[in-house]
Amino acid sequence: MARPILLDVGMADFAAFGQQGIKSVPSRSTRKRKARAKLAARVRDERFKAGPFWFKMLISEATAGVIMGHGGSTLIGLEKETLAAIKLSPYGSYFANSNLRVLVIAAPSLEALKTVVMKLVCDYILADIAVESVYVCLGSPASMELARGVDASLASDEPVLQHEGETVMEVSVVKHGGDRRLTSLTCASIALAVQNDRSHLANTVRLVYDPLALLPGDIDGLVDAHFCNIVFECSNVLPPALFAWLSKNCHVEIDIQSGENNCRLARIEDMPLDHFSLAGGDQATFPVHYWLSTKYYDSAKDHCVIYYIMGGESPLPESGVAYPFISERLAEANNGLVIESEHRLYGSSVPPKYEESLPYLSVEQSLMDHATILQNTLETVEGAKRCRAVAIGGSYSGFLALAFRLRYPKLVYAAYASSSPGRFYSQEAPYDGGYYSLLTDAADRIRPNCSASVIRAFDDLRNRYGDRVTFEQAKDELSICNPEAFGSEDDVLEELLQMVRIEFSGANMASYPPDSNSSTYKLCTTVEQSGIQGVFKAMAKGDTCLDVTRHLPSPDKNGVYSASCGDWTGCGIRQAGRSWDWQTCTQLVERISTYGPPSDMFPPRKFSVDRWLNAHCKKSFGSRAFRNFSDSTREHRLNDFWGFDEATLPKITSRVLFVNGGTDGWTAGAVTSNLSETIVAIMIPSGAHHSEMKAPSNHDTPDMVAARDQIEAILDLWLGATDAQEAEEAEAYEVMI
């Protein structure tokens, strides 16, 4: 069998190997030697001019490799040009004339194996080569070691590969010559057999990676590589975004289940885009994904509970159920079956025509998705019909948990709504400055005098630039890579100020425990030491400048990016951010303003539906995208129909638990006191945004420990009620439950 080529994508040293490796390529002519030397010099020169970009060739008789990596915006331009030179260089002919049949690739992450690397290497170098198999060891810190092990295993026909003392799993690899057995990685990893849709790579590509090592942008890189016809031969956790893309674009055979926690990724393949249409004929559908964990569920036991975690305004977690307090503590104690669903038009649960589908992104449609998933679980999981279901969520999904209880009381026995901003959505929040006022108070408790430092930093920025920052000033003085993304110089300053508000909002939500290790403490320290420019530098995470597009929702229909979406605490990034912008434009209107000292530490900015929100939504989505952008009553409609305001809730429902954190700005729009004997609120003074749902730790505060005990006791009391007690309770309400 031909020896494999070893393609190493990693942070190797350019100077040590570049010239030496290239010179080791066998050559039979002076012309080729000159071409090699010219390419080597060119690569070396480009490497030093580009700074973080580097490119190295390492070629030898036994193995040949291309080593690539990048660290800046110069990646695509340089690599396209350099790879084009490779196509015309001796390496192209060297590969084409070799007996190459196997390619082994090792990469620390897909960040190092970006789209241009996979696509252009394949297009330029392997275009005319009949490669039988490609093995990709991706994500593991020991990826090179593993790749060399695969290399050795293939060469020696040795069926067992040892790694760090563990016997690794055995997987099947389909090749032209029939079925071959080899081993790849430990069972903590995922093995994927990938058949590329390019004719010149017509056989098997194996992708092996450690999900814990993937970076947030890695899935985008893999999707852009256009791998197709995936066969999953190993059981473990697969990121939902990758799962969905493969399901939509490829012929997929899937059996994904973790042997360690019995948590598998499932989906409803044909979820209706419009649940409420009575039209005949074919209706548009799309897949909706969810995690289903049976780790602590035993169908033979009498008592059981379904913990249904509502998906919110973000993708489904990539490594299983997000909230350990639910999936571990509560589920273990109550024979729990745990579901965590993904919200429509977020993450991987997106119809093919995203923009055209936005009018179907509503609370009502989403609740029907959840009802469908829950009903499907009751019908397909043995013994599940006897379990009572608790709807659970944090933040917006906490509001959805309440709404699920209200709209589908036969399916949902109780609701646990953590950090739910329902009083914003019912338009009951008493003060539109409450959110940032609470955030400011919390920042001063966590880092004394934080607000004074922030106010001073904003004043310094205003004194320096007045009301306008030019593109040039933003680049040269504030280290913003691409201020042009905001569309106009008139908008740059306000957009940057809004990004700072959002950064503090994100830090506030994550600041549990509220100590010197919290994100709020660190952000306050940054402002005190480096001013507002220090915030931008911290957001850049080591890059020379801040690429604002990485922190913002997808652009509007005119290609303009904005931090000023319908949610003035931040909408999120990319497509998920655009989806949330749509929801806060249409149904979930949040009146959140800043007023400056003494109310809060931010520059004044007054939120107005009539003067700002309507214009923003029309600009972002088009005047015809939603017919009611100018409807002054749209923000009241859900509550007018359903009655989730504090006065109405006790009359129409029961068994709803609200939990809030004392340092969380969203508490300004939350239910913070008991509304009845069975509509109960718990306040955790040290808590942040649904922080009680995290796994217990040695750093937990006493009030957090007590709150978790209280939450469990209340839910146990409700779930243990007899049918007779439930019927007696129902008589007290205007609407039977």
TrEMBL record:
Highest taxon of the lineage: Eukaryota
Residue stretches spanning the membrane: none
Coiled coil region boundaries: none
InterPro entries xrefs: AB_hydrolase_fold, KH_dom_type_1_sf, Peptidase_S28, Ser_carbopepase_S28_SKS
Record keyword Secreted present: no
Keyword Signal: yes
Pfam family, one: Peptidase_S28
Molecular function per GO: dipeptidyl-peptidase activity; RNA binding; serine-type exopeptidase activity
Gene Ontology biological process terms in this record: proteolysis
Keywords, ordered alphabetically: Glycoprotein, Hydrolase, Protease, RNA-binding, Signal
Family: Belongs to the peptidase S28 family.
Protein name per the record: Thymus-specific serine protease
